[in-house]
Amino acid sequence: MDYFDYRYRVLYADTDQMGITYYANYFKWFEAARTEYFRALGFPYTECEKKGIYLPVAEAHANYVAPSTYDDDIIVRTSVAEIGNSTLRFEYQVMKAKTQIMVATGYTVHVFVNKAMKPCRVPEEIKRVVKEHTLLKKRCRCK
Fold first, then answer.
1. Hey, which residues does 33 pair with through a beta bridge?
2. Cα(55)–Cα(84) distance, integer angstroms
3. Which residues contact 52 (CB under 8 A, 6 or more apart)?
4. What pLDDT digit, counting tens, does each position of 68-100 carry?
5. Of 63, 76, 107, 114, nearest to 89 (Cα)?
6. Could you tell me the domains of the chain?
7. Which of the listed residues 9, 20, 38, 136 has the most CB atoms within 10 Å of its CB?
8. Parallel, antiparallel, or unpaired: how do β-strands 4-9 and 73-83 relate?
9. In terms of Cα–Cα distance, which of 94, 86, 85, 84 is closest to 34?
10. How far is the C-alpha of 61 from the C-alpha of 90, rounded, in Å?
11. What is the set of active-site residues?
12. Which residues have CB under 8 Å from 72's CB, separation 6+?
């Protein structure tokens, strides 16, 4: 899977006094989308944590392109852009589901750490599955 689409309906509670989505909520949606991305690959975060592996956010960025408002049906398209020795970089595209209008883009960088919060290598099984699904998806696009 080159990307994973997470759908979300903007709640009234997600908006600010101006009636648009409060900026920090995009980071919550990024988290929900990457959690579901991992689940779709067969690696829910809970399983990583059971193995003593954690993925704190080391860097986060969002670029707001257009507003989203109450009751918008949005898609958070999530992909792994880079796999390092102990890091993963996720990229996100937030768009309105019906019109595909881009609302925001962003990324997060995560460091794999052990229980002592010391960096550790990205597990080979995660690297393998992410790379396999990315290659399969790219091959399918060529046809």
1. none
2. 13
3. 114, 115
4. 999 999 999 999 999 999 999 999 999 999 999
5. 107
6. 4-142 (3.10.129.10)
7. 38
8. antiparallel
9. 94
10. 11
11. 16
12. 9, 10, 21, 96, 103
Q: What is the pLDDT of residues 18-27, one digit of tens each?
A: 999 999 999 9
Distance between CA atoms of residues 75 and 10, nearest Å: 10
In what order do the strands lie in the sheet containing 73-83? 4-9, 73-83, 87-96, 102-111, 57-64
Residue with tokens 């589901």: 97
